[in-house]
């Protein structure tokens, strides 16, 4: 077999293995290692490239963002800031049709800015928002759909783990990726709120709900006490990076320290809780390091096979322009999103397309935002919509089936696709803060 044939077979094998349940780094690493060995008939070369991949991943300074932001997100979640910000948002939207849904979106956006995790958002707001919406007679499908849709904000609003993974794969600045995610994340949140308003106006039977006449407004003093810690964290992390006061690593350290201080002042974390948080941070960090190492050896395998250049020549020979390439890329992302998780898609697809995108003069930072949002749509689509499965498992309510969660999330997947097209047509939206 030629290197091209081996490389193509390797990509297909990796996708099949991941779909069958093989751990992502194992699939990437083992198949890539064996492919290099077969292509060059040299076991020592494959072993040396594996050593280089491990060293490049472990010794990268910016990798320190992973444990720091993971720790910050876990601490903030345990401190109860997600519940606090939700209760505040409910005060502002309560009397609007679909208002509790809008409050859930707003709270998810704020919560995402200090956790960076869709799974954490789905878990927290399934317990907080869904029971409250059901109590006010909102339709179950709408209730779980709002939580599922808004939970993906955690993967685009910084500090997002997916943006960090992309920055390593594409060799881009983590700080630039974080800043580029702010406007698209806010735009997506606003689009969700507008969609909920439209659903309440034109499809009231899907939304349901009744006026919250029994709700008492929250005092301003309580609002301040519940929002200031979150705002302080957001300003420290995002503001510190934007103003140039902090690098991404320093912002992660400052945010972690501040989150720990907030948790201790609230007495929401014991010494045992701190130890468990540190252990969980270690697990997350090790898993992501393993992913990045596997992605590094995979990229080297693709380079040896010449597959990215072959793909570029194929598309160039077909006279595809920018629009056609973007359509092809997004359709591929949407298809893979139905069978793979977001990190798998980024690790497999991005190394293939980078050699094609770079010569076109397109911003790789912008391309990263497009990639993450495109892959994130898969969190809401069957059969592998992870956010939907998390919501169903967290609720443990026989009245709400997995089908209800997927059907409720469908309109929000459509909104994501609309925003994705908007960001492709207007790249300056992603790069506004950087310029």
From TrEMBL:
UniProt keyword Transmembrane helix present: yes
Signal peptide: none
Membrane association type: Multi-pass membrane protein
Domain TRAP C4-dicarboxylate transport system permease DctM subunit intervals: 11-429
Keywords: Cell inner membrane, Cell membrane, Membrane, Transmembrane, Transmembrane helix, Transport
A Pfam family this chain is assigned to: DctM
Molecular function in Gene Ontology: transmembrane transporter activity
Domain of life per record: Bacteria
GO cellular component terms listed in the entry, alphabetical order: plasma membrane
Subcellular location(s) per record: Cell inner membrane
Transmembrane segments: 12-38, 58-77, 98-122, 142-166, 178-199, 230-263, 284-307, 327-357, 364-385, 405-426
Summary of the function given for this chain in its UniProt record: Part of the tripartite ATP-independent periplasmic (TRAP) transport system.
Known partners and oligomeric status: The complex comprises the extracytoplasmic solute receptor protein and the two transmembrane proteins.
Name of protein: TRAP transporter large permease protein
Organism: Celeribacter halophilus
């Amino acid at each position: 077999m030629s290197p091209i044939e081996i490389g193509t077979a390797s990509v297909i094998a990796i996708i099949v293995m991941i779909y069958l349940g093989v751990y992502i780094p194992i699939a990437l690493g083992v198949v890539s290692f064996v492919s290099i060995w077969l292509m060059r008939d040299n076991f020592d070369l494959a072993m040396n490239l594996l050593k280089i991949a491990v060293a490049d991943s472990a010794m990268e300074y910016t990798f320190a963002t992973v444990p720091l932001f993971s720790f910050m997100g876990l601490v903030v979640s345990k401190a109860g800031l997600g519940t606090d910000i939700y209760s505040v948002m409910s005060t502002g939207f309560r009397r609007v049709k679909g208002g509790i849904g809008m409050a859930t979106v707003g709270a998810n956006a704020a919560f995402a800015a200090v956790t960076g995790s869709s799974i954490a958002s789905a878990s927290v707001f399934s317990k907080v928002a869904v029971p409250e919406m059901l109590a006010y007679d909102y339709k179950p499908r709408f209730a779980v759909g709002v939580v599922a849709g808004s939970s993906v904000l955690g993967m685009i609003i910084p500090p997002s783990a997916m943006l960090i993974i992309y920055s390593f794969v594409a060799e881009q600045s983590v700080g630039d990726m974080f800043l580029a995610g702010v406007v698209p994340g806010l735009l997506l949140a606003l689009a969700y709120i507008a969609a909920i308003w439209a659903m309440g106006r034109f499809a009231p039977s899907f939304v349901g709900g009744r006026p919250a006449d029994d709700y008492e407004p929250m005092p301003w003093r309580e609002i301040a006490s519940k929002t200031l810690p979150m705002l302080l964290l957001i300003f420290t992390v995002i503001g510190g990076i934007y103003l140039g006061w902090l690098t991404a690593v320093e912002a992660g350290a400052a945010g972690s320290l501040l989150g720990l201080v907030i948790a201790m002042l609230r007495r929401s974390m014991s010494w045992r809780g701190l130890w468990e948080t540190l252990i969980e941070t270690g697990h997350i960090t090790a898993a992501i390091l393993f992913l990045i190492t596997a992605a590094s050896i995979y990229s080297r395998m693709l380079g040896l096979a010449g597959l990215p250049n072959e793909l570029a020549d194929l598309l160039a020979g077909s006279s595809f322009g920018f629009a056609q390439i973007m359509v092809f890329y997004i359709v591929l992302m949407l298809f893979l999103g139905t069978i793979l998780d977001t990190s798998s898609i980024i690790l497999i697809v991005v190394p293939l397309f980078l050699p094609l995108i770079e010569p076109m003069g397109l911003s790789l930072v912008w391309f990263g935002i497009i990639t993450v949002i495109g892959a994130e749509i898969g969190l809401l689509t069957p059969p592998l919509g992870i956010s939907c499965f998390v919501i169903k498992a967290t609720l443990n309510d026989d009245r709400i089936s997995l089908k209800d969660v997927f059907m409720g999330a469908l309109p929000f997947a459509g909104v994501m696709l609309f925003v994705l097209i908007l960001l492709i047509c207007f790249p300056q939206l992603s790069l506004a803060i950087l310029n």
